[in-house]
């Protein structure tokens, strides 16, 4: 495999990794996205806690998943079993952030190596184009499956990413934070991820179309 072809595949993989990982990371890190669910989904009424307490519980849980330290959920009760699930969630978060960083590093490195060179293409298209198309096609398929039956998709997601474990099935009395993490919130997270991902993929595809127009001109 020559150098240009190797850069082509490295660039495609890097872009795909970065687009997927950053689309997942943004909803995770955007706390106001969660806060926006408190009033519309009547989480105060459902849980018996105030908005301030709900925010504190969510922030404590997310801080633990992102930074480690002492596990707590504000004024809400939690169990050791529930904490173990958030330990697993924290591992997935770290993997996503690592993939995001590695993908971005790969994108930058391949861009620098290809600088001032005519891009290597396959059937006339660049690595960025194929990264956008392949990633978009894959997540459209996942989006369709999720839209058909999100509850089933949600269960399958946990079986795949938490194999052999059932501690993600919370008891509302033992792990009260589940009362303020409704399924609708996770559904909306999935929608946000798909929207971000589609936007980034379309940006890659449209960039390729502009490149082709310049060549034609």
Provide an overview of this structure.
- With 217 residues, the chain is an all-alpha fold.
- It has one domain (3-216).
- Helices cover 72% and strands 0% of the residues.
- Helix 1 runs antiparallel to helix 5, helix 1 (3-29) packs parallel to helix 6 and helix 4 (51-67) crosses helix 5 (80-114).
- The longest helix is centred in the middle third of the chain and has 35 residues, at 80-114.
- It is elongated and about 65 Å long.
- The protein starts with a helix and ends with a helix.
- 24% of the residues are buried.
- The mean pLDDT is 92.
User: Given the C-alpha coordinates, what overall shape results?
Assistant: elongated
Structural class based on helices, strands and sheet pairing: mainly alpha
Helix content bin: over 70%
Number of domains: 1
* Helix count from the secondary structure assignment: 8
Which whole number gives the mean pLDDT?
A: 92
Radius of gyration: 21 Å
- The run of helices and strands is HHHHHHHH
Termini, distance in Å? 32 Å
Unreliable stretches (pLDDT < 50, length at least 5) are none
The major β-sheet equals: none
Percent of residues in β-strands: under 5%
Number of strands: 0
Layout of strands and helices, then pairs:
Elements: H1 3-29, H2 31-35, H3 43-47, H4 51-67, H5 80-114, H6 127-148, H7 150-161, H8 183-216
What's the short story on this structure?
The chain has 217 residues and is mainly α. It contains eight helices and no strands.
Summary tags:
elongated; 217 residues; mainly alpha; single chain; 8 helices
């Amino acid at each position: 495999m020559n150098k240009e072809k190797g850069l082509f595949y490295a660039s495609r993989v890097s872009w795909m990794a970065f687009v997927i990982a950053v689309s997942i990371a943004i909803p995770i890190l955007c706390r106001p996205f969660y806060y926006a669910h408190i009033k519309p989904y009547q989480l105060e009424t459902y849980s018996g806690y105030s908005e301030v307490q709900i925010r504190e519980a969510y922030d404590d849980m997310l801080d633990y998943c992102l930074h480690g330290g002492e596990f707590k959920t504000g004024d809400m009760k939690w169990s050791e079993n529930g904490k173990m699930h958030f330990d697993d969630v924290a591992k997935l978060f770290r993997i996503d952030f690592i993939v995001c960083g590695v993908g971005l590093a790969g994108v930058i490195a391949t861009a620098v190596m290809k600088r001032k060179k005519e891009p290597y293409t396959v059937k006339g298209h660049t690595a960025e184009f194929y990264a956008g198309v392949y990633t978009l096609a894959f997540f459209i398929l996942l989006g369709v499956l999720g839209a058909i039956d999100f509850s089933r998709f949600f269960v399958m997601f946990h079986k795949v990413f938490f194999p052999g474990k059932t501690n993600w099935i919370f008891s509302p009395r033992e792990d009260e934070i589940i009362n303020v993490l409704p399924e609708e919130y996770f559904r909306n997270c999935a929608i946000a991820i798909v929207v971000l991902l589609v936007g980034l993929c379309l940006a890659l595809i449209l960039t390729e179309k502009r490149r082709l127009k310049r060549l034609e001109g």
